[in-house]
Every structure is written in structure tokens, then in C-alpha cells.
TrEMBL record:
The keyword Transmembrane helix applies. Coiled coil: none annotated. It comes from the Bacteria. The chain crosses the membrane at residues 6-34, 46-69, 75-102, 114-135. It holds the Pfam family SpoVAB. InterPro entries: SpoVAB (IPR020144). This is Stage V sporulation protein AB. Keywords: Membrane, Transmembrane, Transmembrane helix. The keyword Transmembrane helix applies.
Amino acid sequence: MWAAQILLAIIGLSAGVAVAGGLFSFVIGLGVVSDFADRTHTGEHILLYEDSVALGGILGNIFFIYQISIPHGGWLVPIFGLFGGIFVGCWSMALAEILNLFPIFIRRIKLLRCIPYIILGIALGKGIGAFIFFFNRW
């Protein structure tokens, strides 16, 4: 019976490592991390950034699975939410950029003006929607 449990643990761990590796390589492949490094002119630290992304995912899973609490960590929640929102927003924009979503959409609807306002509207809508969602949960 314990051999079956060990086998299941090995299969589960292997599947988790494969899925996490695929996700992190997808994030790195989209160019989110390299774009951050390019915009901040800190390209010499790209390996540190990639390691930080992987470490953040690993620690986030460990904290979630084992229900580890941080003493007096309530003040970190808004900071984490801000950085998490920035990262997800940049990730989605990088994916849209890779797929050439915006140029195709703008060409199809023949939109020539107000593009910065539309992008600002998308960002504000995402921010206000997240605020309402989290405010209603609290």
C-alpha cells in the first residue's frame, strides 16, 4: 500500500514540475522579464530576474499548499496585490503584443485617433474592476 502512495507522490511531483516549468518558460518566452529589464536598463541582471520569477512561483505555492502565515503580514497584502496586478497586466499586454491583437483590431474598426485613451480606459477598467471585486470580498 505504501508503494502505491510513493508512486503517486512521484507522479504528482513530476507532473507539477512539468506544468510549473511550462508556465515559467511561457512567461519568460513572452518577453515580460526581458522587457522589464530593457525598460529599466538593467539587462545585465536578467538571470536574477528569471530566478526571482521562478522563486516567487515556488514560494507562492509552498505558502498556499502548507497554509503558512506571515505574522503581522496584513500590511503586505496591498503591496502584493499591487505588484501582482502590475505583473499580470504586463503579462496580458505582452501576450496581446505577441499576437498582434491591437494592430489587427484597430485596423478592422478603422480607428485612427484616441488610441492612448482606449489603452488608458482598458487599464482603468481593469483597476476599477479589481478594486470592486476585492472591496466586495472584504
